[in-house]
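Hey, I'm writing a tutorial for new members on how sequence and structure tokens pair up, and I'd like a real worked example in the thread rather than a made-up one. If someone can provide the structure for the chain below, I'll link this post from the tutorial.
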Amino acid sequence: MIAIPTNSLEGVGYHSLGAFLSANCYTPQKYVRRWAWEIFWMTQAAWCWLIWPIVGAVLTIPDLGAVLAEASKIVMLQAFLMGMAYGVGGTAFNISIRYIGFSLTYAIAVGLSALTKTVAMPLIHGTLPEILEKNGSSWIVAGVGVGILGIALCGAAGRLKELDFRGSLQASEFNLLKGLFFSLVAGVLSAVYGIAMEDVAKPIVDLAYEHGAGYWKGNIAYPFVNSGAFVTALLYSLYLARRNRTLGQLVQLAPGSGGSLGGNYLLAMLTGTLWYGQFFFYNLGHVRMSNANTSWAIHMIMLVLFSNLVAVVFQEWKGCRARTALTIALGLAVLIASVLAMTYGNYLGEAMGG
């Protein structure tokens, strides 16, 4: 099997694009009108976790039928079950945003995910010493450490924001304890998703490569992992819809003014498309990295960076005191330094032959 040529600069570029899409994937939800949360959630989940993964695999995996016939059914099932676990995390992530906003949710959940996935699997497989011996590894380790510091600064800025807005109308939905709980759940289970994609589903991905998938090989894993997430999201949404008697909103909007049924469906489709887009480009970045173990950390840290920029656009930081603004600005600067350090480490590994 001929190895895919690496190009770390291209890889980081694709990771950046994927992270940007992810940071914006929940933005359309702000414009949904007269739909219960569970109706929106099951609709967007159908796109990001079921429809697009299947379409992506059909369009990019040669001999898809042969790959599926040859692939291990046990591996398929394991990937599906881990996807179901991630579905819980995805739902928790969305709930956390309602309580603590984009910036703090991404800081806690994504930071925990980056640390868990990047460190846990090399320790489990016993490959950490080998990874640390690669050229540029010191820059990568430093980049991960700096990235965690940047994430912590963004989290601290979120806490300062809570104090700034305490007692104001702007903070009426801000609940740090509830948001912290849901973001921690989301962070751990997000790492499970990364493990499912890069470790559990690897035999199927390798099989797709043998059939000529090339750079697109990772797309074969999404139908298994993401469909598991879809099942979890659908079951929870149907439970809420039955309890709240909102299932009829799939065909008729709730009483009120504003919005349209077609418009809500389009917004849900846009949300799902942006979410799937992040990992469509994640895969293209991952296969180009000289040190593939850094992909998840780079992607997650970029998520925090772009999500905070989105929060600025949506004025989540408007009205904060100077120290809060300075803290978030410092956090963003540190995150940028982290990405640059890890990019340089990958570049050294590539230029010096691993």
